[in-house]
């Protein structure tokens, strides 16, 4: 689904309001579990995103009518898994309900994909520790010659001893 909507970003993350919370006219394209933003239909067909924004992933997203927003009519809310929150305004009630249905059907189809559910609770930044490595400690500090710097670190600590 695609069409012109007004967009307003409310939240940047779970506890942080967005820096720019003004309404913007954007051409939205919903495909394959993601929502892309473009200036207009022409830039969407050419693949030129609105201000260089990458399409947002709709995995773990919630889409609903924004009953608490009273300043404009026909507004729905899209809350993403990473805490971002967007408001979208459609031109009428029918278009708003059509967008909500399309986004929710895109959510349900992306939840069925094998890579959608992440059963990992740890960050993927550190490699797993192998029990056969024999290293009982953590990282060992070494100088450029490859010698252990543990004793040097103790001698030159951040806070010097008072004499």
From TrEMBL:
Gene Ontology MF annotations: phospholipid binding
Residue span(s) of domain PH: 1-108
Chain residue ranges for the region called Disordered: 107-163
Biased composition (Low complexity): 107-117
Segments of skewed composition (Basic and acidic residues): 142-156
Entry-linked InterPro entries: PH-like_dom_sf, PH_9, PH_dom-spectrin-type, PH_domain
Top-level taxon: Eukaryota
Name this protein carries in UniProt: PH domain-containing protein
Organism of this sequence: Danionella cerebrum
Lineage: Eukaryota, Metazoa, Chordata, Craniata, Vertebrata
């Amino acid at each position: 689904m695609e069409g012109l909507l007004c967009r307003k970003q409310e939240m940047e993350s779970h506890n942080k309001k967005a820096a720019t919370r003004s309404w913007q006219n954007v051409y939205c394209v919903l495909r394959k579990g993601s929502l892309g933003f473009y200036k207009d239909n022409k830039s969407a067909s050419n693949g030129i995103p609105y201000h260089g924004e990458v399409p947002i992933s709709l995995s773990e997203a919630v889409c609903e009518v924004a009953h608490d927003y009273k300043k404009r009519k026909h507004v729905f809310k899209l809350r993403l898994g990473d805490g971002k929150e967007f408001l979208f305004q459609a031109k009428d009630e029918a278009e708003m309900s059509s967008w909500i249905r399309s986004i929710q059907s895109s959510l349900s189809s992306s939840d069925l994909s094998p890579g959608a559910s992440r059963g990992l609770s740890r960050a993927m930044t550190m490699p797993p520790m192998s029990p056969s490595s024999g290293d009982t400690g953590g990282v060992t500090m070494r100088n450029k010659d490859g010698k252990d710097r543990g004793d040097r670190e103790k001698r030159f600590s951040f806070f010097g001893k008072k004499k």
